[in-house]
Amino acid sequence: MTLILFKDIDTPGLTSIDVYEKTLEGYQALKKAFAMKPDEVIEMVKASGLRGRGGAGFPTGLKWSFLAKDVFPRYLACNADESEPGTCKDRELLMKNPHLLIEGMILCSYACRIETGYNYMRGEFWEYESVMEKALEEAYEKGYLGKNIMGSGFNLEIHNHMGAGAYICGEESAMLSSLEGERGEPRMKPPFPAVKGLYGQPTIVNNVETLCVLPFIVRNGAAAYAAIGTEKSKGTKLVSVSGHVKKPGNYEVPLGTPIIDLIEKYAGGIRDGNKLKAFIPGGSSVPILPASKADVPYDYESLQAAGSMLGSGALIVMDDTTNVVSEILRITSFYMHESCGKCTPCREGTRWMYQILSEIQNKVGKPEQLDLLIDICDNMEFKCFCPLGDAAVAPVVSSIEHFREDYEELLGSLKTGQPVGTT
Amino acid sequence: MFIFTEASEARIKKILAKYPEDRKLSAILPLLTLAQEQEGYITPEAMIEVGKRLDVSPAYVESVCSFYTMYYTKPVGKYIVKFCINISCHLNGCDNLLEYTEKKLGIKEGETTPDKKFTLLKEECLAACCEAPVMQVNNKYHVNLTPDKVDQVLASCP
Fold this sequence. Notes:
The complex is a heterodimer. By secondary structure, chain A is an alpha/beta fold. Chain A has 17 helices and 11 strands. In chain A, the strands form 3 sheets. A 5-stranded mixed sheet of chain A has the order 6-5-11-8-9, with helices on both faces. Chain A has a 4-stranded parallel sheet with strand order 3-2-1-4, sandwiched between helices. In chain A, a hairpin with an 8-residue loop joins strand 8 (276-280) and strand 9 (289-290). The longest helix of chain A is centred in the last third of the chain and has 18 residues, at 344-361. In chain B, 42% of the residues lie in helices and 11% in strands. Chain B is of the alpha+beta class. Chain B has 7 helices and 4 strands; from the N terminus they run ααααβααβββα. The chains are: A alpha/beta, B alpha+beta. At the A-B interface, strand 3, strand 5, strand 11 and helix 13 of A face helix 2 and helix 5 of B.
């Protein structure tokens, strides 16, 4: 099959511009793009069917076309704040193929008439900061960045910017707050970043993987990309398969690949002779599903129909020795830690859920606490300021729906007369 | 009193050049990171200095600093050992490994060894889930950990 993102990714020295140019037709897409009008590039990306790979799956070309008309300067902020539990695809792209991202950022900037771009990397990617800085230097030296790029009259500066440890900065408006030098708290939407983003100017926020697809689309045309995948979910997707599998790893597959193939064929199946019990298909923010759904095709529509989401493309696999409650507790603890504290339902709700789940896990919970959990979730869902609150709810509600017996196993161990809720 | 070294000053110049002239507050995270690299943690004096550079109050700097988990406002060990404890690492036995490391270093998570060599911390997802369990030692990744590998990594810290 056609590899778009991981083609020759393990070529030695690929982080250097010469190897990138030789191996992957590196920076060849620029010539083609500069021969087109910027709007034609936007139309091309629209026609390709590419959707945002950060989590929301919004059509990329459409997002670009929402930029406030004739307002300049405009900015590009690449979202390299990869922190969604289970997700480690962008890290592999950043450490192995930084020039693919830079080329993608140049194409996006040309199409959107942007002259300044920032690559916001999570602070923990400290090791890859120097990789990216060196790659940027090389791109400037070769004339792919700076003034009048390749004689096109187009100017672009790209800078690397490091975060300092905050999951919420992966939410686009929180990232812009952070980039402006504030606490990484989300902002009210609308206005959306395309209208008022960084420094109050029109801004495109795209994920690393999304931007890395652009050189392929520009080089080979929209139809070549749209030919891969399903009718509505076009192209390939990087899927981070982790958990109880024999060969965990990032795999690039055409959208629509059955989940069971990802687990069995790509990741080598469940290890230690155990059986598949549960999986989370799109990172910790999406509903958990039981093994009976493993034949679902891995694409946006099929996963939604199955009651979950494709999210960031992180397939977390659990075998039949797992009690799902302890994993949901771990995820809930994460959201409690990462809630920025700006809005009450999220700040308080994540803490209450954590307390209740801890009691259940420690076998001092009460059966009626399951209804209480559902009630808290009802009071959080769609009522929090940003998507973090909804994300915290999804694993809890879905795990009670599909794995109630795991909760009951822990609740059933309660002896009559034992004091409860005292931990 | 906190003074940026000459080497830091050269880097500050480069950092400030990344942002529009009237938007130098964007440099607050990189400047705090530099201050921390210099002293190991961020002192109140460093916050005052960063505030002066960016025309904001020390209180503002502290409010930003306290938001991000990678900044330490108290002294830490020479090596900061951060264990990922999120779901993919949890499914791969990070709890046992953390306990092993606690015993080995003779400290609990959140503590620093008496010789100030190691600080042991829990960390939320480090985005290396396919190589779980994972830890970072002074921001460098160590993946596919086993007790033996933890031993090797810690022994390699001079």
